[in-house]
Design a protein that fits this description.
globular, Rossmann fold, alpha/beta, six-stranded mixed sheet, binds pyridoxal-5'-phosphate, about 20% strand
């Protein structure tokens, strides 16, 4: 057991996360069987897909690594999870945050400061360079012995962590549904499908074509487009945009089913599922697995 694994066991993660039957009183829901996998219950901070994506990143860190850098917005679930893991692993962290929140820190950024994370605010133009090799080389030069985790924790080791989740529980399914931001969670699920299973991503931002390319870019070469797709009708106007109807839906859902959801990710997923059921998207008797990816930073009161 390496150090990262010892720390993992001290985190008391709720794994496997539970899979619960879900039978809402929604038009069309009577024709299918649904379950929700509650990855939101894995840990209060390192919840959902951010734990899945960071698990092998931390396990595989070179021993010489003393510092992690990563990127995200002021409400980033990824920076929150990554910073907490760095604190627990005794690794310094610098968070490159898009925009200047220095005069009004978000609750997420307050947590980072309390955990000893160095927060660096960067303008939009600099932030756009976050995947450029030249920029990353410059950061490496400036900060030696640093491991740079891409935005969202979305790189190859993330796929393995995500793939594991589909074999944790005995329930079977035909379609797994998941919100899509950077695509790594969807890509990880695709690698774990057993034909004829399929994965359906719900885009949380305007990204027709772009999101598909991100997913293809993360997938190992042998995977084709056959058993997955992304639905682009449910982003609600863009990333972080939440029409009042969506906010209302999230509040009602949270009260009725006692499963907290928020409008940035899980709310868009559940809203999409409700619409798809109403319009008969799924063949009768389909078995759906809805992945609650956790992450409530977008819903914390300031
Ligand atoms: C980051 C995040 C996503 C998006 O995952 P990707 O792998 O970037 O597509 C979905 N849900 C929640 C709750 C998240 O925090």
């Amino acid at each position: 057991m390496n150090n990262a694994m010892q720390i993992e066991s001290a985190l008391n993660l709720t794994l496997p996360s539970p899979v619960l039957p879900f039978s809402p009183n929604w038009p069309g829901a009577e024709k299918v069987t649904m379950h929700i996998k509650r990855d939101d219950l894995i840990h209060p901070v390192i919840s959902g897909n951010k734990w899945r994506k960071l698990k092998y990143t931390f396990r595989a860190l070179p021993p010489a690594c003393k510092h992690i850098m990563s990127f995200g917005g002021g409400y980033s679930n990824h920076l929150h999870a990554c910073a907490y893991l760095c604190m627990r692993n005794n690794i310094a962290m610098t968070a490159m945050v898009r925009g200047d929140y220095s005069h009004n820190l978000t609750p997420m950024l307050h947590d980072l400061k309390n955990w000893g994370t160095r927060v660096q605010f960067v303008d939009k133009k600099t932030y756009q360079r976050r995947t450029e090799p030249g920029y990353l080389a410059h950061l490496h030069q400036q900060y030696p012995h640093t491991f740079i985790v891409p935005e969202g924790g979305s790189h190859a080791p993330a796929l393995q962590g995500v793939a594991e989740l589909l074999s944790e529980n005995p329930q079977t399914f035909d379609h797994v549904l998941v919100p899509v931001g950077s695509g790594a969670t969807l890509a990880g699920l695709i690698t774990a499908l057993k034909p004829p299973q399929s994965a359906i991503g719900i885009a949380v931002l305007k990204g027709k074509g772009y999101l598909e390319d991100l997913v293809r870019g993360l997938l190992p070469r042998e995977y084709t487009d056959k058993n997955w797709s992304i639905a682009h009708d449910y982003h609600g106007g863009g990333y972080g945009k939440a029409p009042s109807s969506l906010v209302e839906f999230c509040n009602l859902f949270t009260t009725e089913f006692e499963i907290p959801i928020e409008p940035v990710y899980s709310g868009k997923l559940m809203f999409a599922v409700k619409e798809m059921l109403r319009t008969g998207y799924f063949p009768d008797n389909s078995r759906l697995l809805l992945l609650h990816t956790g992450g409530m930073q977008g819903a914390r009161p300031s």
